[in-house]
C-alpha cells in the first residue's frame, strides 16, 4: 500500500501540472489542410428585382440548397475583422470552392426549379454576359468597402465544364490582408396551380430571385514565411522610372515624358525593395544586386501616391479600364488589364525564365492610396517587374496614353559556405572532420557560389609519407565523395569576393585520423613520429618514454633518507642531553645530603636511600624512552627502504611496457 501511495502522489502532481500548463499555456496545433464551411446570407426577391442585396435587410443566415460554399487550406480561425469571419493563413494559399447541389435541376410540381435569367444586372454590378442558370461573382477588397470583381462565372448550373474550385487566393492579397465576397445569384420558378385560358389549361407559376452572399477575411499568420519584412526597415532601394509607352503598342515604347504629356511632373507611385543586408551592382549592366543573409526577407513594396480616379488632383485624369491591353516584352496575349497590370517574371540559376505572375486590375484591387503595399517576397534569382497602365484624359475628346514602369534586379545569398554531410548518418561535418563513409555537398540553396574540390592521397616513399593530388575540379550541389583521401573544398562568392576553405578526411587510415585530430601537416606528423611519438587508436599522439625518471626518483629517496637520519640524530642528542641533566641533578642532591648528614644521622641515612631509589627510577624511565624511540626509527627506516624498492620496480615495469608498445 505504501508503494502504491508513493506512485500515485507523483502521478497526481504531474497531471495537475499538465492541466495548469494547458490552461495558462495552451498547446499550439498547426492547422493543415483544414476545410471551413462558410455560412452566408440568403436574400429572396420578387420577379423583376435586380438582386439588390445592398439595400435589403431581409436576409437569413442559412445554408443554401443551390450549393455549398467552403474554403480550405492551412488556415485557422481568428477573431472577426469588422464583423467579418477571419482566418489566418499559416502556409500556402486558400482554395475557394462552391459545389453545386442538385435540388433545383429539374422542373416539378410544387417544387422550385432553375430557370434562365437573361438579365445582366446584379445589385450595382453589370455583367458582360447574361446570368442564365446562375452566376457566381468573386470580389476582393482591401478595406471591405470598395469591391473589385476578380472573377465572374455565368450559366454555372448548365456548364458541363464548371469546376467547383472557383478561385485560389493570391500571395499579394494574403500578405496585406484581404476581404473576399462571393455573390451567387439565380432565378427560381415553381408551379402553384393551373387555370384555363381560352379553353387551354395553363400552369400558374411563381417566380423568385435569390442572392447568396458570403464574406470572409484572410491574412497571413505571423509565422508565415511569405510575410517579408516591415515597410520601414532599412536599407531600402527605390526602383523604376515611368516612360511613355505609346498607345496600343503592347507597352513597347520607351519615350521620355515631355511637358505636354498628361503624366508630366508627377508619379503614380513608387516601388522599393528592402529586407536585404547589402547592395552591389552588376559590373556590365549596372543592375542592382541585393545580398541577403540567413533571416533576411527581401521584399518588394509599392506605394500608391494618387487617387486613380483623380490623378494629380485633376478630375479629368484617371486610370482607364483597359479591356484589351497586352505586353509585348512578356509576350502576354490581349486581356482585360483593367486598372493597371503588374507583371513579375523570375529567372532561376539555370537561366530558365518562369511564367510571369500577372496581377490585373492592380491599382484598384491591390493598392491603397498613401499606403505601402507588399508585392512579393523574393529568394535568390533574377527578377523583371513591370507596371502597365493606361490614362484617359476627359478634358476634351477622350484621349488614351499607355505608361510603363519597368525595372530589373537580382538577389544573391551573401554567405560563402558549403555544408558537407556524412553520407550514412547525415551528420554535418565540420572543418578537419573525418568520416569513414564519405560525404556529400549541400550548398544550402546558394545557387550562385562557385566551389572547387581537390582530392589528395598519401603515398609511402623512402623518406616517409607525402601528398599526391589526384584531382582538382569544380563541384556542384549534391556531389558525393567516398574514396579515401584528403579533400579540400574551396568556396568563392563572386559578388562579395569572400572565400572559404574546408578540409575533410575520408577513410579509416590511422595516419589520416591523426591529421584530422591534430591538424598537423604530413611533414609535421612524420617529424613527431620520428621523435618517438606514437598514434593511439583515437588518433591522438602518445608521448615518447622518458628514461631519466629512475635516477631522479633514487635521488629524491636518498634525500628523504638523509633528512630522516638527521632527525633521528637530533632526537638521540636531545635524549642524551636529558640523561646528562638528570645525572647532574642527582649529583647535586647527593652533595646536599652529605652536608646535612652531620646534623642528623638518621635523616642522612634516610635521604641517601631516597636519593638512590629516585635515581634508579629516572634511569629506567630514560632507558624505556630511548627504546621506544629506537623502535620507531627502525620501523620508519624499514618502510622507506621498502618504498624505494617499490618505486624502482614500478619504474622498471613502466619502461618495459613502453618498450613493448614501441615495438
Task: Describe this structure as you would to a colleague.
There is one protein chain. With 663 residues, the protein is α+β, with helices and mostly antiparallel strands. Helix content is 24%, strand content 38%. The protein is built from 7 helices and 35 strands. Strands 1, 2, 3, 4, 5, 6, 9, 10, 11, 12 and 13 form an 11-stranded mixed beta sheet that branches. Strands 15, 17, 18, 20, 21, 22, 24 and 25 form an 8-stranded mixed beta sheet that branches. α6 (549-597) runs antiparallel to α7 (601-662).
Kindly list the characteristics that best describe this protein:
663 residues; alpha+beta; eleven-stranded mixed sheet; 7 helices; 35 strands; elongated; disordered N terminus; disordered C terminus
In short:
The chain is an alpha+beta fold.
Summarize the amount of helix as a percent range.
10-25%
Q: Count all strands and give the number.
A: 35
Helices, by number, come to 7
pLDDT < 50 stretches: 1-31, 590-611, 642-648, 654-663
Structural class: alpha+beta
The main sheet comes to: 11 strands, mixed
Radius of gyration: 50 Å
C-alpha termini separation: 66 Å
The shape, in one word, is elongated
Whole-number mean pLDDT: 82
What proportion of the residues form beta strands (DSSP E)? Answer: 35-45%
